Amino acid sequence: MKHGKGLVMKTTCIAALTLLALAGTEAISAERDLQFINILGAGGNVFIVNTRDQEFSLDGWRFSTQNSTSDVVYSDPDAFDGVVVPAHGTFLIFFNDNARDDIPTHFNASDVGPFAPFEMDAYSMSFYHPDELGEVDFSNGEQMVDHIQWRRYILGLELDNESMAAAVDTGLWASEDEYIPVRTETYIIELTDRDNVELHSPDDYNVIFDCRPDISDDGELNFFDISLFLQAFADQNPMADVSRDGNFNFFDVSLYIQSLGAGCPF
Questions:
Q1: pLDDT under 70 in the chain at which residues?
Q2: Are the CB atoms for 76 and 25 separated by under 8 Å?
Q3: CB < 8 Å & 24+ apart, contacts of 74-78
């Protein structure tokens, strides 16, 4: 009888712990239903969408950002207090500070920051929700909602911050060394994977440049672009993945030759 009671108690404890674990997982996944979907390079606009069937209060939510010349910048703890994102709603951050006053989910970066100055050269952005005490630990990936990072590969710049490491550790970004490849005149970085998958890599984004074959990013098409493409292809650099399928093969070479022949804009 004692053995039977012990077994029942053990089973009950395991069930309770399992429910707690599932509840914690549900909380994390719910908050991670907010995702970066579009970055407009020309205007410096960031679009974040709530893909869930419920609204979210952003009290205590914070950003971590860094560019090629700045230290890591953390937004203020109360920057989004009182902001509610409706179910399937989108909120925008305008780095050029031209948000409309009559739209409650449009924000000027200067009002909800601070942020590292927006740029294409190299940039990382992470979004966090607070814990039950209202605090944010930027090294804790379990509090991270989403992460994105990009750079102009031709410059060879590297960023280094705790959020990049946390994004990889918690399964939101593939690798600290992988950046979405952009150019000076990048119109949009667009998330193509809209299935609400948490783990992302540069392969999940479509990037529209002013002139795709201009790999040297100098506004001209010449031998230097061909040389850089061949080197990037040999190194399996994302710049050479023209087909955007995550592979490096004949299709990338063929598409690059076609784009080079078509000239710019392309």
A1: 1-30, 196, 265-266
A2: no
A3: 74/114, 74/138, 75/112, 75/113, 75/114, 75/115, 76/112, 76/113, 76/114, 77/134, 77/136
Q: Which two tokens stand for residue 173?
A: 């970004």
H/E element holding 62? strand 62-67
In order, the DSSP letters of 167-231 are: HHHTTSBS-TT--EE--TTEEEEEE---S--S-B-GGGEEEEES-TT-TT-SS--SHHHHHHHHH
- The two beta strands, 180-181 and 144-151, are parallel
Per-residue pLDDT at 144: 96
Answer positive or negative: Cα dihedral of 253, 258, 259, 261.
Answer: positive
Give the phi and the psi of residue 265 in degrees, each rounded to 5: -80, 145
Count of beta carbons in the 10 Å neighbourhood of residue 48? 21
Predicted TM-score (pTM) of the model is 0.81
- Condensed to tens digits (0 to 9), the pLDDT of residues 124-142 reads 999 999 999 999 999 999 9
